[in-house]
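Let us practice reading a record.
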Amino acid sequence: MEPIGQLLSTPKGRLKVVIAVAVLIGLIGIVIGVSCRPHNDDEAIPEPDRSSTAPTTGSVPPTSSSAPSSSSPATPPPPPPPPVGARWQPRPGMTWQWQLDGKVDTGVNADVFDIDAVDNDASVVSALHAKGKKVICYVDVGGVEQGRPDSGAFPKAVQGNTIEGWRDERWVDVRQLSTLEPIFAKRFQTCKDKGFDAIEADQVEAYKEKSGFPLSQADQVAFNRMLARLAHERGLSIGLKNALALIPQLVGEYDFAVNEQCAEFDECDKLSPFINAGKAVFHAEYDVPTSKFCPTSRRLKLSSIKKELDLNATRETC
């Protein structure tokens, strides 16, 4: 390197010194500017403006789903079905009253009332709810009762033999699901509209009876599963009535059981799958005294009562 005095003695040397000093000053200025600039971790780097730039090869143009037009709003999706936990689940040990004849006595001391779908309007259900009760809607699903308002909805082709003991009622052909589904959907919807919490579906073992149709157990199970689906779609619980042989196949799809006379025929143990699943069994006897069946009912955790055959308000409890 040349001495500074020698560089300054010539015009060319002095020019070198000026250039070197200028470069040095510039570098110092850059260093000071960077070190003094405030630091902000949240400051975003501005995106380049691409609004006037044509898309390049391989780019994906925006779709209508990502930027819907304000002039045609998207249709909202349908609401999801009610969750399983939204419907009432009767538990073992709940007390019940079963009254299908006469004006409902709402003063009976019971947790649950099982009453007729047609004979009771929404005010009866509301009155029971006001007392903290749950209310089951009785619906005959296995037979056509001539006195019901919708009996004309059943085609003659699905009506079979007269049900023994009920001369105004005929078995239905449970194989005809597409014909029967809209009829029972309307019945269950009526229960829903009146405010009921659950369905008691009666006459659900036609395959064992002289129905007038060649019904199999599989036909009956398919029909009973359709009923459970129709109830659950409306947020209603549903009980399996009697049909002890079908319990292993249907206990998972039904929310409780309703049984008549299991003590009389010594078959109450067959209802245990419902109790073991945490589901109530509402049980009634007609001829056996409470002193005979209540000990077994307590052991099995059945909700048991003694009733008169016409199912008026009278009852005896365990």
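A brief commentary: Residues 27-82 have pLDDT under 50 and may be disordered.
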